[in-house]
């Protein structure tokens, strides 16, 4: 979608709730709320403000933010580095991030706070648009556009709340613009997670009615009907509503709108963005006021002539048997195309020399490569590669997992879906005759390999809870669950069952005494 940074006025207003700033007594110009929300152009800008929070720029950009935003680095430093796949690299020097990566953080942690604040700023932008756009007069020929704008913001609000409820559990469910100057209005309690999920589902169902299946090129990247239904399938999967998850995912599959690129190497190239596999993505644009993909330089080795890279994200290395440098890289089959294109082991510098690093003799360090943009040269942070929020390959894996759980074992369709993903990767079909537990573990591994460095792993680790009910069939007999067991396997021994939820940020509790803290924090 175009022009994420087109409305600095609204973004600045949205962030008034997060920080104080010194204002001039006589501003040269100012657009008040009563002057705005009058025209169709105003409505479009209000919707743009809700999209903007997916990947807004940093403090160096005009109208940019002073903190990271979810799909532009924040999820990497605030979530991905806590998994069994990614660690802070040499370029990640923030002590708060390094502490959180080994699960020694607390409620005062900066990333814990920023994820909360960024999502609620985004929710506020969506709420404003949903509330104001119905009062704007559209022409008879653009009434469909008016409905679409509202549907786009309901989709975005659902996405933001889906992240919040998975990370923090019970959260305030705010559905209207608040008066940020009224202390009583902004001090609200947490709503039960079940109520938040009910609203998420309602928003996605409503959005699916008024969103189009596709857009013209100028609007590519906006939320679509397929995106709403695909996200709905993921919500149901998280709730362990297996039958509903399967139905929603299979609706997307059966629509004929999406498919897999023939080669995994095509998925992340900027030339193919918003293509057949991209159900919904955070959009980036090179050489456009710093709106490039800030994740790109983080996975690359630094000090290579011709590149500006930070190497802030690296793989988790751990001991497995006699191998002291095991990592996700070694979980791939040798001929798996995803291994070849998700990572590189050497980089050709501008001096025509290859640069690599050894863990040990004969054991080369792999670098993360998904968001590399060959079109931006040395300035990797200007990468135009999008960040996928949901891809068609994930929809296939959602359908496979849901079919397995709903039927107490894999169906023929479950095998068909997972094998489509494996076939594109260039590896053999999954072994037949698996039971429900074996198939579940196979799908989890497939998700891990397919979606590495796309900020899905933490959400996968926390959704298989300890001590599950018999009806869900998902969990571990030792009561620790997949999260704790997986993290302890890679040496992150601070992990406990309290980490299935983030702490509610201490600063937010201090500002809003109606908030309560999660257990163990």
Characterise this structure.
This protein is mostly helical and 521 residues long. Among the domains are: 8-233 and 503-511, Alpha Horseshoe (Serine Threonine Protein Phosphatase 5, Tetratricopeptide repeat), CATH 1.25.40.390; 296-385, no CATH class. It has 17 helices and twelve strands. It has a two-stranded antiparallel ribbon with strand order 1-3. Strand 4 (318-320) and strand 5 form a beta hairpin. The longest helix has 26 residues, at 143-168. The radius of gyration is 23 Å and the shape is globular.
Radius of gyration: 23 Å
CATH topology-level fold name of the domain at 8-233 and 503-511? Serine Threonine Protein Phosphatase 5, Tetratricopeptide repeat
Q: At the first level of CATH, what is the class of the domain at 8-233 and 503-511?
A: Mainly Alpha
**What's the shape?**
globular
The counted number of beta strands is 12
Structural class: mainly alpha
Question: Number of DSSP helices?
Answer: 17
Return the average pLDDT rounded to an integer.
Answer: 90
